[in-house]
């Protein structure tokens, strides 16, 4: 990923926070027919040795896991808030016209080896953990145990687990850090006026 120094984010706590807030990742792998890209919710957890790992599952019918080249690292891309930035928000545009549009965004790239897991107990724990995380904000959270046992077992048999051991983590927070103070103030005001939660989340990134 091209990442000028002023946009680079390396603090693990910030990177982990974005990954947890936006768990639906684009998982890029190499298979027999080239690159695969799947949209997979991945949970960031910690292995026994303290290494960060990403855990999830895919449909057993998905050919990705069957043709995976395990010797080639996988890449998980987590996209955070994003917004188009119009030069109309820049005071410098009115001063001298030397301004162009851009796009602000936050993204995390996680790389590492990917392994396939068939263990039924592991799969059940992973599905339970994913469900609990997503359901925790609801007044009446749904649990896997709410469904009939035979139904759950049938669905678990139709998936396989995936685990990516994170060996490299890279973040990019593109939030107008390269603009003069007046332009940054204009961007903040413009994003607030949009009324978009995801756009407003870019405010304060540094």
UniProtKB/TrEMBL annotation:
Pfam families in the cross-refs: FMN_bind_2
Highest taxon of source: Bacteria
InterPro entries, alphabetized: Split_barrel_FMN-bd (IPR012349), TR_PAI2-type (IPR007396)
The protein's name in its UniProt record: FMN-binding negative transcriptional regulator
Naturally occurring in which organism (per UniProt): Azospira restricta
């Amino acid at each position: 990923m091209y990442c000028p120094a002023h946009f680079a984010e390396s603090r693990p706590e910030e990177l982990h926070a974005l990954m947890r807030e936006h768990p639906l990742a684009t998982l890029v792998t190499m298979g027999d027919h080239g690159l695969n890209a799947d949209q997979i919710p991945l949970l960031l957890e910690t292995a026994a040795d303290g290494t960060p790992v990403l855990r999830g599952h895919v449909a057993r019918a998905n050919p990705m896991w069957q043709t995976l080249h395990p010797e080639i690292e996988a890449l998980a891309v987590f996209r955070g808030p994003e917004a188009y930035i119009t030069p109309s928000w820049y005071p410098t545009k009115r001063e001298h016209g030397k301004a162009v549009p851009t796009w602000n965004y936050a993204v995390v790239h996680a790389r590492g080896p990917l392994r396939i897991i068939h263990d039924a107990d592991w799969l059940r724990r992973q599905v339970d953990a994913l469900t609990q995380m997503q359901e925790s904000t609801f007044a009446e959270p749904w649990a896997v145990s709410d469904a009939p046992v035979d139904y759950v077992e049938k669905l678990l048999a139709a998936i396989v687990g995936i685990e990516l051991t994170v060996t490299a983590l890279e973040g990019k927070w593109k939030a107008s850090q390269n603009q003069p103070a007046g332009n940054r103030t204009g961007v903040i005001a413009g994003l607030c006026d949009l009324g978009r939660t995801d756009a407003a989340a870019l405010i304060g990134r540094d």
